[in-house]
Amino acid sequence: MPPLKIIVTGKSSVTHAPELATLRFSVKGNGSEQDKVAKEVSSLSSNLQTWIKSAFPSSADNEPDAPMTKFSSTNIRTWTKSTGRHDQPLPNPYHASISFKAVFRDFAELNHAIEELLVYPKVEIDSLDWSLTDETGRRLASDARKLALRDAIQQADDYSEVLGRSVSVVEISDQQASPYRTRHLFGACNSTTPFGDDSPALDLTPQDIDVESQVNVTFEAA
I need a surface site. Which of 54, 58, 128, 157 has the fewest CB within 10 A? Predict the structure, then answer.
């Protein structure tokens, strides 16, 4: 009997509770005087940074059990938008912003930080992403790859059982760039964002992470 090729795709998904949460937020301002807007945003950002570092120590500050692992900020960004819809001049054309990123491992402290930031002047919460540590991610990616290959082998065995022929692997192709799927929580909101009956409430419950793998396997049935 001539050789027969069996090509299957093995898939797997491993779920794990998140270990880190990356919070991104910004201080933004606008007004009629460029220098005044820039100074206000810069001053508010400096006060915010002082508060964050005091209230939530980072492991970068030699605090091994600190609630944050990383904290960083960008330089101030300024721009001008002089006209709005229908080319009408805007009363406050000058804008400025500074963005921050804080990575939390203590989710109770994360919730506390978000509650405080939502009432902090001129602060917008940009996003919140749940993720794993690199060590856990590598371990789960390895588990997912093995499970995906086992899934492909099981499929080939099912076909070979019906055909009455034995199979062996001749090619494995893993073209997936990254097995990680972080969970994204919400878009920009601030203390003035309405949360009425028609608006979704902020859900700060940690979202499980899916670590997936997909592998194409070619078998030869003799």
Answer: 54
Tell if the pTM clears 0.90, that is, is over it. Answer: no
Beta strands in the chain (DSSP E): 4-16, 20-31, 68-73, 77-80, 94-104, 123-131, 167-173, 180-181, 183-184, 189-190, 209-221
Beta bridge partners of 184: 129
Output the CA angle 183-151-217, nearest 5 degrees.
Answer: 100
Are 144 and 12 contacting, i.e. CB atoms less than 8 angstroms apart? Answer: yes
- How confident is the prediction for the chain on average, in pLDDT? 87
CB atoms within 10 A of CB 140: 21
Contact call for residues 70 and 60 (beta carbons, < 8 A): yes
| Contacts for 47 with CB less than 8 Å, ≥ 6 apart | none
Residues 78-100: tens digit of each pLDDT: 999 988 888 888 899 999 999 99
Token representation of residue 170: 């001749």
How many other CB atoms are found less than 10 A from the CB of residue 125?
22
CATH assignment of 21-131?
Answer: 3.30.70
**Sign of torsion, CA 150 11 134 106?**
negative
Tens-digit pLDDT profile for residues 133-154: 999 999 999 999 999 999 999 9
| % pLDDT > 90, the chain | 72
Superfamily of domain 4-16+135-193+204-221: Protein of unknown function (DUF541), domain 1 (3.30.110.170)
The helix/strand/coil state of 216 is strand
Query: What are the residue boundaries of the structural domains of the chain, listed by start?
Result: 4-16+135-193+204-221, 21-131
